Each structure stands twice: as structure tokens, then as C-alpha cells.
Amino acid sequence: MGYYQIETKETQQPGDWQRGKTTLLFRCHVRLHSGEDEETLFLVGPDAGNQVMVLWKEANFSVLGAEPLAWIELGHAQEPEVYRRLLESFLVAVRQADTAKLEDFTAIEAPKQGLLPESEIREVFARVFAG
Questions:
Q1: pLDDT digits (tens, 9 = 90+) for 60-117
Q2: How far apart are the first and last CA of the chain?
Q3: What angle do CA 121, 127, 128 make, to 5 degrees?
């Protein structure tokens, strides 16, 4: 299996996808530009048309519903590695765009029997924002 590019909303306009069946990857509080914290869910799953595997964000204050953050063609999505790669690609994109810092993501919680262990999710955050 080759390495396939993951796109993010920072690098490419997302498709007009509707969320399909998703699973909670983790939840956290995200610091908004206003200084308020917003509880945010990060979900993983295909779009309703089964074209792409997507990292979705669903937030308290959002009127948009679930927003696609990062995606890869479904045929190239190898589980469970794709979950880490989607999260990492999204975090790299926001770090490079300087739209968020590590301190903007707090109270990270992953389900006990989740797609990735919480320790791995925290490790991805630390690695991306360290360098």
C-alpha cells in the first residue's frame, strides 16, 4: 500500500459532503478567538456517499453542523492508521496556518474503547505543536 495524501480544509475546498455514520474520536474544549472555550467533538467516518473518510468537527456554537476538517479517498483509508493521519494532517494544517496553538485545545477526552487511545491522541498534539 502506498502513501496517499490527506487533504484539509486549509489546503483544499471540501466537497459538498453530508456526514455518514461517524464514531467519536475524542472531545475537547477549543479556545475561540473571543476567548471563550467551546466543547467540540471530533468524529471520524465516511461521508454519506461513501467517497471519502473524513475527520469531522461538531461544535456547540456552530450553526453549520458537522464540518469536514481533513479527508482521504475512502479506498485509501486504512484503519486504524487513518484516524491518526487525519488528526495529524488537520493539526499540521492549522499550525502552519497559525490558526491554533496547543493551548487552544484543552480537556481532551477519548472514549475508553475508542478508535485511538487517549495517550496516542495527546501524543499527536504534542508532536505536531512541538516542532
A1: 766 677 899 999 999 888 888 999 999 999 999 999 999 999 999 999 999 999 999 9
A2: 28
A3: 90
Between CA 58 and CA 66 the distance in angstroms is 5
pTM (2 decimals)?
0.91
Asked whether the beta carbons of 40 and 57 are under 8 A apart, the reply is: yes
Q: What residue type is assigned to position 99 of the chain? A: T
| Amino acid, single-letter form, for residue 101 | K
d(CA 70, CA 85): 9
Per-residue model confidence (pLDDT) at position 42: 97
CB count within 10 Å of CB 14 equals 16
Alpha-carbon gap, residue 130 to 90, rounded angstroms? 15
The arithmetic mean of pLDDT across residues 3-32, rounded, is 89
Torsion of CA 12, 13, 17, 21, to 10 degrees: 40
108 is written with which cell numbers? Answer: 481532551
Cell, residue 59: 461544535
